[in-house]
Design a protein that fits this description.
Order of helices and strands: EEEHEHEHHEEEHHEEEEEEEHHEHEHHH
CATH architecture of the largest domain: 4-Layer Sandwich
Radius of gyration: 25 Å
Number of domains: 3
Helix content: 25-40%
Distance between the termini: 70 Å
Number of strands: 17
Shape: globular
Structural class: alpha/beta
Length: 374
């Protein structure tokens, strides 16, 4: 059989305040087109469909439209699990009748023990779970980490293996030896830790979610699909895409996705960055993280850079930056009021003045701090 493996859509995600709806819709349209062109037998989505457990109405509408398009319009079976960013309860609402259209959505750990039975394949869908869910399901208080829980869970799955069928595991966790970027939430909270890759060896293919880089793990039988959109500056150099998985024999083909607005890291001095000869080949509507190499402060630096690069997601100074210094004695510092000092520190660090709104927030925070001291 042939499947398309994707994950980590994170519908509703923002990039340093910038809305990513257009980027996510652009990526979805490519995923749909690839699925149709490759004539896949189904689409696997390995968790984190939403970016937060309480998605906005707009995010819910967006995801519903995407799933309807794939399942009801394109008639593609869907094999989906909830991830650590999803609310299993909210995402799973209505799943009782989803299977009538071959939309298999697992959000409860117990569902992982019942495989989806296809002609020549069994698919085990393991949603993201906390240790207490495993202790309740198996009535075993000794289950306090992911390794021991997954060992027990996979043992029970293997008891249901049908000989001569292919066995696919869909899961959302961190596998030992994988690499991650700063946009992923570590699964170490609540006792969850990376699991050993050895636990996965009896499956013909393991479709993983959680890490946003498709190159994070390359086992013979296991892959992360990575996210379809870049969600942080640390993902700037990653190639986004999806896996086409042929099961007999196992063959994995990575299909790259184009970015509507890409993410770039720019490093240079202020004069160079504002030079047309430097930026003339760039798409200036892309997202930029900028590191300035100038040693001295530059007035209104962010505003001036945004005249060329409107979508700046971060602005940093290189290590050789010389912070402005002023010869102020301790006695002079004690004589100044807190708001004046805060304003000066902000100016020194950012080369700009507090906005009126920032000033109001600062006054409120300082008053609250003074009341707490009293």
């Amino acid at each position: 059989m042939r499947f398309l493996h994707t994950a980590d859509w994170h519908i509703g995600r923002r990039l340093h305040g910038f809305d990513l709806r257009e980027e996510q819709q652009f990526a979805f349209q490519q995923i749909e087109q690839i699925a149709l062109q490759e004539k896949v037998d189904g689409i696997i989505v390995a968790g984190d469909l939403y970016d937060r457990s309480l998605p906005s109405e707009e995010s819910v509408a967006t995801l519903n439209q995407m799933l309807r398009q794939l399942n009801l319009q394109d008639k593609l079976p869907l094999y989906v699990i909830s991830g650590n960013h999803d609310s299993a309860t909210r995402l799973g609402t209505g799943q009782e009748w989803y299977t009538t259209t071959q939309f298999y959505l697992h959000t409860d750990l117990q569902q992982a023990l019942t495989p989806i039975e296809l002609t020549d394949t069994q698919i085990f869908l393991v949603p993201y779970f906390e240790p207490f869910a495993a202790r309740q399901l198996f009535k075993d208080d000794s289950l306090h980490n992911l390794q021991s829980t997954m060992h027990l869970l996979i043992t029970k799955m293997k008891q249901q293996f049908v000989p001569h069928k292919k066995h696919i595991l869909v899961a959302h966790f961190f596998v030992s030896g994988s690499t991650k970027s700063d946009s992923e939430t570590a699964l170490t909270i609540g006792g969850l830790a990376p699991i050993s890759a050895d636990l996965l060896q009896d499956f013909d293919y393991v479709a993983l979610g959680h890490l946003h880089n498709e190159a994070a793990l390359h086992l013979p039988n296991a892959r992360y699909s990575g996210s379809p959109v870049k969600f942080s500056l640390s993902e700037a150099e990653q190639q986004k895409g999806v896996w086409i998985v042929d099961t007999d024999p196992l063959q994995l083909t990575f299909k790259p996705l184009k970015m509507l607005h890409d993410v770039h890291q720019l490093i240079g001095d202020f004069e160079t960055l504002l030079s047309e000869s430097f930026y003339h080949n760039l798409n200036l509507q892309d997202f930029f993280g900028i590191t300035l190499t100038d040693k001295q402060p530059i007035p209104n630096v962010l505003a001036r850079l945004r005249e060329i690069y409107p979508n700046i997601i971060s602005l940093e100074r290189s290590q050789n930056y010389l912070m402005p210094t002023k010869q102020i004695t301790d006695a002079q510092i004690r004589q100044r009021d807190p708001l004046t000092l805060l304003t000066q520190v902000y100016q020194d660090a950012t080369d700009s003045n507090l906005t009126e709104q920032q000033r109001k927030w600062a006054i409120k925070a300082l008053k609250q701090a003074q009341n707490e001291v009293k």
